[in-house]
Design brief:
Layout: E1 5-11, H1 18-31, E2 36-42, H2 43-46, H3 53-70, E3 78-81, H4 87-96, H5 101-105, H6 108-116, H7 123-126, H8 128-137, E4 143-144, H9 151-168, E5 176-177, H10 212-220, H11 237-249, H12 252-263, H13 269-296, H14 298-327
Parallel strand pairs: 1-2, 2-3, 4-5
Helix pairs in contact: 3-13, 4-8, 4-14, 8-9, 10-13, 11-13
The structure holds adenosine-5'-diphosphate and tryptophan (TRP).
Adenosine-5'-diphosphate binds next to strand 1 and helix 1.
Length: 332
Amino acid sequence: MSKEIVVSGIRSTGFLHIGNYFGAIHNYLKMQNDYNCFFFVADYHALTTHPDPKELKPNVYRVVAEYIASGLDTNKVALYAQSDIPEIPELYLMFNMMAYKGELEKVPTFKDKVRQHPDNVNAGLLTYPVLMAADILIHKAAKVPVGKDQEQHLEMARNFAQRFNNRYGELFPEPQVFRSDARTVKIMSLDGNGKMSKSENANAAIFLSDEDDVIRKKIMKAKTDAGPTEPDSKMPEYIQNIFLLMNLVSSSETINSYQTAYNNCNIRYGDMKKQLAEDMIAFIKPIRERAVELQQDEAQIRKILHEGAQKARISASKTIAEARKKIGINYY
Ligand code: ADP
Ligand code: TRP
């Protein structure tokens, strides 16, 4: 039986953080053995915010290096840059004919961006989910490992697939969000304000590239309080987040001892954060070191991107030829 197809991408808009790791990459690693995986750097998506041209290449190279340092194996997956696959913008153009202004304007991520950058509401931002649908459907993916924040975009990808199929005949599957287990999580910012993200508060995000001391400082500054006063109290979200992080990188004995201390109202958050910082450092250090090493080897990164693009274009060109034919673009 042929393997199910998986597609996912991360925008090259900054340094990868542990939210990206545990929300997305952690799943990629699990999937790479059992699925036919296409993982990419969403560099076209990054253009919505007009990055400096000089920053593009280092940003893309860094994401590739961090993907590989995290454990992605290019013998198993196709790893490529979105902009190396011209079939993606072609499919995007086709889907744009079936995407309606009203539905695009209602997407919560679009509304957020309008609020954040009222002076840069460009059409690329509006059609962001259309490009994402093209990324996914160009390989006819069945499963898409992404964090919770991307569910609505996936629903739109299913809509565009359906609309195309209804109008022109069956071609695309309806891709589903893939989540492997409870470890696929939403990590909050260390200041307690919203999700950890590349672009919001850099001091409250832990990056895969952070040095040991930076990790220590950031974790020690994470929001806590005076601790519970009643046994078995409900945890505030920012405390849950510290426990969640501990769950991801510490041993079960460590977690259990702090959980018991919390329930007995004698928890010392200072000690807990110290322990968490050391466990986080042990987790990040090998990834960081490997990523730094890889980034110094530009020839290797170029080779990875080149080979990945070749693999991805085989499947992309097949799909686009079928889509053109269904639409009626076959003139000779
Ligand atoms: P960011 O929001 O940091 O710019 P992206 O939008 O490029 O990151 O997201 C890349 C992947 O990482 C997506 O699958 C997204 O769901 C996941 N992700 C991003 N932030 C978090 C977080 N704080 N917790 C869990 N998953 C996250
Ligand atoms: N929009 C996704 C994010 O911000 C990134 C992305 C672009 C993506 N294209 C994709 C994810 C295709 C999965 C599949 O996280």
